[in-house]
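Side project, low priority. Logging it here so it doesn't get lost.
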Amino acid sequence: MALENLTFHNGVKIEEYKELSENSALLISEIPNEVTIPLTQHIGAPSKCLVKKNDEVSVGQLIGEASGNFSANVHSSVAGLVKEVVDIQTASGKSAKAVVISTEGYDQNYNFEKRDPSSFGKEEIVQTIKDKGIVGMGGAAFPTHIKYTPAKPVETVIINGAECEPYITCDDFVMKTKANEIVDGLLLLMKACDAKNGIVAIEDNKKEAIENIKKAISEKANPAIEVATLVTKYPQGDEKRIIDALLHKQVPSGGLPLDVGVIVSNVSSTLAVYEACYYDKPLFERYLTVSGHGVKEPHNMLVRIGTPFDFLIEQCGGLTKDYGKIINGGPMMGISQPQHNLPVEKATNSILVLNEEESKPPVINPCIRCGKCVNVCPVGLLPLYIHKFSLREEFEKAQNFNIMDCIECGSCSYICPAKRPLVEAIRFGKRQIRAAGK
């Protein structure tokens, strides 16, 4: 099957700004004097704190234990002394307990010896994923061990290398420099869920990554795994859009990829699975992108979880004089930050700094019923009507127009000539419907 130049219906072409960081040298972050590690960095129950003030901790030590199955372990990213356990608002918008660790005077080096996991059965792979605290690192932070304990048969595992949000290039960097590890990670994930096929899906603007992954796959001589190239378009990285593009299967409304025999995992999550199984390494650091026109020297970086945003920005030359705002994530689905010193989490793939001009709120005009939002919606919704019903608090009507199927990608707001805050109104409606338990 030819897996080239594939895509989904609708979507938008967006200025990418990938050139700001994609060819820069990797920066390995310095260790700050203090890290703050949230105990909720995942969907599900907060992890149970295992440390207290004045406890000494080492790199990779378990400091937060999964509370029940739908949770995830949390490990220390540094060696140091627990300063306190505090309540914080995380960069992803959650209220969470967090462990503050002072690193001064402690050796931050680590060494995990390589081992051969070829004898691992699927249960041992899944248990390792759980023990090492691996979650979805593309934004959702879904505990990976749950995803790979499927209740239905799995035909295909897809590794999502689309990275369609503007500015972000860390997954591209990982694929270019860790291609063999990504392929080995894919094979482990296929074994974990008894999948027959594996696909690494990459947007066609990542030429070097495509070639490197193809080379790594060819060395395996395994016909069950292959590369698919996707048309560069937003939101190509949405897992349901990837499934549609690659396999021509539509996940049903309210359903999951598993309903069509598929599991989708992020590139960085796959690398974490490889490191967990081959090196017994917990998830305590990650690659991320610091970019935007409001930071002086954009870079991809390898950083410890819990490192403050502003500490990383300073290593990238600091803020420009005309910086406007800082976003956790990309410009389309990221979260604007009221503080500059919130800590990096497992799902933090980007710290985006916009300049003042880019940060200005648009002038909002009345809807002209042009239908452009309908033409770009990747789900096939009618955003202008859902927006109207949400603002009027006519939530039953909004549900009749399938508001809960909205993936909040922002394509409708991006294309709207009247600059209507369509996705913000839809988010409001969804929150109200969930709060009412409907």
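Brief comment: The chain has a mean pLDDT of 96.
Revisit when time allows.
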